[in-house]
Amino acid sequence: MTAFEHILGGVLASAILLSPAVLHAADGKSPAVTAMAEALFKEGKKLLAESKVAEACRKFESSYRIDPAPGTLLNLAICHEKEGKLATAWGEFNESVQIAKKTRRADRLKIAREHISAIEPLLSRFVVLIPDDGAKIGLTVEMDGVPLEEGAWGTAIPIDPGEHKAVVRAPKHKTWEKLVVVEHSKVATVVVPKLERIPDPKPPDVGGRWKKPVGFSALGVSAVMLGIGGYFGGRALSLGGEVAAECDDLVCSDSTWQKIDEGRGAATASNVLIGVGLAAAAAGTFFLITAPPAVKEAPATTAFLRFSVGPERQFLGIGGTF
Length: 322
Fold this sequence. Notes:
- By secondary structure, this protein is α+β, with helices and mostly antiparallel strands.
- It has helices at residues 3-15, 20-23, 31-49, 53-66, 70-83, 86-103, 106-119, 211-246, 254-290; strands at 124-129, 140-143, 146-148, 157-159, 162-169, 176-182, 187-191, 302-309, 314-321.
- It has nine helices and nine strands.
- A hairpin with a 6-residue loop joins β5 and β6.
- The relative contact order is 0.08.
């Protein structure tokens, strides 16, 4: 057995005598809390004596959570040291030093300092290296869910050996994660790359908002044109029938020749209007198909059509706001 093991055995024997029930009987803790903490503390000592280190540490941890007694903390640190969690034990021993100074417990102060001196050369550590723009973009670093202060960037921090998860975040940037394997008594360096920026969302394309109202208007014009064209077509057919009945062997009266001229004009108007109506229908359909999705905040659009057809007057009017 080495000298260090002799020292550790003697310190452990002294530390486990520090019962939380005795130390905190007058601290105002409820009897139920004290009893539960004491039971867990004793079970931890028993398991540790049986070399069941991991089970013993869990009992000490539970006891300390219920009743954070200084004696339990010191025993917990010793247990974590035996478990191989040297960084955890180092932190707990340092906390015990501060408590021992405040409570003027020279015995505990001596124990904690001896363990700190023995542990420090064996500590595993990690260091996080941040890109130059880290602070500027609001970068944050977490190791196993624990935030790493900006002042600790670039500093070797004690950590227990094993696998750990580093998470780096920044507003408007993609989160970066990495599993870090820390070896016993070595320093693991975590080099954070320049974070990838998340592109700003593109504003909705409202450049084609005019297409939908114009498309509906074009369909309306198409309906009107086809209707008027149909009217003139019907008028041309009607006049043609009258001319056929009135003319005898291509001999027509003056009034009949007027009907022939009127019928020809009606037929021409019908052909033109129906052609325009079909073209308007095709254009309106195209605009409706290619129109962008409706935007809620877009101003309302209106369109109207007016027409009048008669023997002496034909009128078509189109209007609206887009």
